[in-house]
Amino acid sequence: MFIGHFAVALCAKRLTPRTSLGTLLAAAQLSDLLWPALLLLGLETVRVAPGDTAFTPLEFASYPWTHSLFTVALWAIIFALLYRWRTGSALGTWVVGVLVLSHWLLDFVSHRPDLPLAPGAMKVGLGLWNSVPATLACEGLLFAAGVSVYTTGTRPRNRTGRVAWWALVVVLVGFYVGDAMGSPPPSATAVAVAGLLLWLFIPWAAWIDRNRSPSTDRKASARSRV
Description:
With about 230 residues, the chain is mostly helical. The protein is about 65% helix and about 10% strand.
């Protein structure tokens, strides 16, 4: 999944309004944020193999350190503990930890059986990517739900909070459609380099969040004036 991971981060904002959207997005996408670097280092392997599944031309040959259930659970614990140390928020700690783990769960639904349970262990996957219409429908509905939850759960403080938010939505949908309908990448290195661009969405999301407020703030303010 791609925008599906963004969707769960957007939905999580409703659970922990004081946690930056940048942090929530980093948690939900942590596996894919780390993956390009390990590809470039030769520690994990992807191949351009059109037809491996109907939806993506990529064959995920080996990615035990970023995408096995065991290591993703370890990344979830590490991320959550760092967040707790930085903020002291118990609720936020649980939310970001679950978000890191959610990446493997969503990939389990999407991928064919190429996700290892642990390095060197059995590989699993339900294979949603074997159907393009089913993939587009599931991710599209999930992303629409995430956009709705974040839009109604926050309000712009200024024009930046409104424009930057909808610009992000448009860019994500554009990337998703382009990736789904475009030509296969020229090489595995190109995949890794393009994957590094995912990091740019983290400060973008944090910037958006600094220019928006939880809708609960308005409700609390209204109650205080009554």
